Amino acid sequence: MTTPAASTGDRPPAPHADAVDAGVVDAILGELLLTPEGRRDPYDRYRRVRELAPVHRSGLGFWVLTCYDDCQQVLRDPRFGKGDPDDRRARLPPEAVDAVARIRRRAPSMLFLDPPDHTRVRALVSKAFTARTVERMRPHIGRLLDGLLDGIDAAGGDTVDVMAAVAFPLPVTVIGEMLGIPPADRDAFQPWVRASTALLELTIDPAAIVAAADAGDEMSRYFEELLADRRRAPGDDLLSELLAVREAGDALREDELISTAILLFGAGFETTTNLIGNGLLALLRHPDSLGRLRADPALLRPAVEELLRWDSPVQLDGRVALREAEVCGRHVDRGTFVVTMLGAANRDPQRFADPDVLDLTRDQGPPMSFGSGIHYCLGQALARLEGQVVFERLLRRYRRIELASDDVTYRPGLTLRGVTALPVRCER
Ligand code: HEM
Questions:
Q1: 17 pLDDT exceeds 60?
Q2: Closest C-alpha to ligand 1, atom 17
Q3: Which numbered atom of ligand 1 lies nearest the CA of 275?
């Protein structure tokens, strides 16, 4: 491993928000969270926040961390967790109380649980996602991708939207097959998953909460019926396996099984999809890097790590102080929400030398894109594998790939980062 720019110990004392004008930092955060310009170029804004106040107490009621080590420390600290849903509810607009109550009636998925429930639920599904288990899927994922690319080539159009043709259907098919969700049912989930991911944003309007509650109800109903089918006729899939675990004892309640199914299926939608989209966009905007990767397939694994670092599909994460604690030496009360800006941590010069340079040979440790600590992404091996398969096979199949337009539009929201469409021209 090459040496990062400097260790945290060498960090010069940075001004806290108290010392700088907190309003200036909040204004930058507002641009990030609320404006299309902020979404188009978050990285310069992250840099300004990090330089002004790497540990920022926002007037919006939460703390914001933008350095790699600080984010990692909070995500790994058992004094921080997902917290009491009532604390989370306090951050939601009161107009959405009924919708919030509907959301709360359902069992939270592992993503929102603290130990011991988190440990119990995660343990039951984790073996399906180990690096060894998913590696066996490499040839099959390659064949699925080839099928999608054959379809594109047969259509013979001038340009193709990679998001619609590859980045969305591939991960959805992979996780859909693993769970045993019939192909005809999969597309119905896209609007539901999109509506429910609004809950991951820092700023949510009441209408979005209502839409998320409605989508959650639809998905729960869908899985109740699917599980009833699987109970009658078990298949060779993860849901049938989890059902067998459930029937054999009380390790997983029925409502927990449903929230697990929703989380696992939903996780394949806007995350790996955006790894493929953001990663390809980065390569197409850096033709030298693309040429290097084409010439040296051994770069594939580090390239996917660098593409994850460069433009992470998940830009932020967060934890609640479960009791009184400190953040970077500063006292925080129980219930304080701390935002860990993963996208900013990935560009922290204390961790990554020349962070604003895309370097596919970079070897400075993993990006923060999959989070850290006990909630570290369960699907990371699968996501990495899918990224590797896509970039390898796209470059092998097409001797030329270029952007049909550089004017891309980002999806609303900051937490999940991805483009609405990515039109490219390919030549075999
Ligand atoms: C490039 C793609 C992906 C990215 C960037 C990503 C990112 C993340 C992040 C940052 C977390 C931590 C959340 C937290 O700390 O609260 C997480 C958790 C999780 N991810 Fe992913 N993810 C990706 C793909 C996937 C896939 C394909 C799956 C499929 C199963 C998946 C399943 C999960 C689950 C179940 C959790 C919750 C783990 C827990 O709470 O213990 N992810 N992911």
A1: no
A2: 377
A3: 1
50 CA from centroid of ligand 1 (Å): 25
CA dihedral over 7, 9, 11, 16, signed as positive or negative:
positive
Could you identify the atom of ligand 1 that is nearest to the CA of residue 268? 27
> DSSP letters of 374-416?
GGS-TTHHHHHHHHHHHHHHHHHH-SEEEES-S---BPS-SSB
Say how many residues make up the chain: 428
Dist. CA 387–CA 427, nearest whole Å: 21
In the structure encoding, which two tokens stand for residue 347, read together?
Answer: 């560009």
CA dihedral of 40, 411, 26, 114, whole degrees rounded to 10:
-130
For ligand 1, which residues put their CB under 6 angstroms from it?
Answer: 110-111, 122, 129, 175, 263-264, 267-268, 271-272, 275, 313-314, 317, 369-371, 375, 377-379, 382-383
The conformation of residue 314, written as its DSSP 8-state character, comes to B
pTM of the model: 0.93
Which residue do the tokens 């697990």 mark? 260
pLDDT at 75 over 60: yes
Mean pLDDT of the chain: 90
DSSP 123: H
